[in-house]
Amino acid sequence: MHRGIYPGRFQPFHLGHLNVVKWGLERLDELVILIGSAQESHTLSNPFTAGERIEMIRRAMREEGISGDRYYLVPIPDILMNNVWAYHVKMYVPSFEAVIARNPLVLRLFKEAGSEILVPPSFNREKYNSTLIRKYMITGEEWEGLVPSEVSSFIKSIKGDERLREIVGTDKR
Ligand SMILES: Nc1ncnc2c1ncn2[C@@H]1O[C@H](COP(=O)(O)OP(=O)(O)OP(=O)(O)O)[C@@H](O)[C@H]1O
Ligand SMILES: NC(=O)c1ccc[n+]([C@@H]2O[C@H](COP(=O)(O)O)[C@@H](O)[C@H]2O)c1
């Protein structure tokens, strides 16, 4: 069994993330999708709760035909000590050998903790990045095509784009 973890904030989960998951599952038997900053929600950088992120990712996996036997979803709150974060993560997830990331801090911390490092390619990063998607939700530009369709319908069902506009004060109601 070759298992890996894929940490991210997934605010929201987009098509770049989905491509990374598929890339990871071609190389690993199982993937733990680690929902980081799980304590965060209702802010400009982190509008969605951990529970909402779990739901959007599960729907995206189902839409893509990825079996629940191949992945876990584990939310983990941040801690104040980077030096022990990799060990903190190990306490909450099934045992793993590999880490998938492009985030330099995440790569550094797991390299120091002795994990195997897998760096995926950048999948259309200029389009597929959550900061841009959150910006489009605020300005009203088309963001729906940048996320799996199950993610856009879920976000609309919870009025997530409206929440973001209210948080930044651009919603005029
Ligand atoms: N389009 C992409 N292609 C490949 N890797 C990606 C892509 N987008 C994000 N990643 C990687 O996935 C991991 C989790 O990403 P994260 O949840 O921070 O998304 P993000 O789009 O970078 O979000 P934000 O803009 O809010 O920081 C990180 O290692 C990040 O580098
Ligand atoms: N000290 C810590 O708690 C610590 C350290 C490094 C990364 N993380 C988390 O890992 C996740 C990494 O994901 P991103 O690549 O989306 O930033 C984030 O949620 C980040 O906060 C936490």
From TrEMBL:
This is Nicotinamide-nucleotide adenylyltransferase. Keywords: ATP-binding, Cytoplasm, NAD, Nucleotide-binding, Nucleotidyltransferase, Pyridine nucleotide biosynthesis, Transferase. Belongs to the archaeal NMN adenylyltransferase family. Residues 5-135 form the Cytidyltransferase-like domain. NCBIfam families: arch_NMN_Atrans, cyt_tran_rel, PRK01153.1. Gene3D superfamilies: HUPs. InterPro entries: Cyt_trans-like, NMN_Atrans_arc, Rossmann-like_a/b/a_fold. One of its GO terms (cellular component) is cytoplasm. GO terms for biological process: NAD+ biosynthetic process.
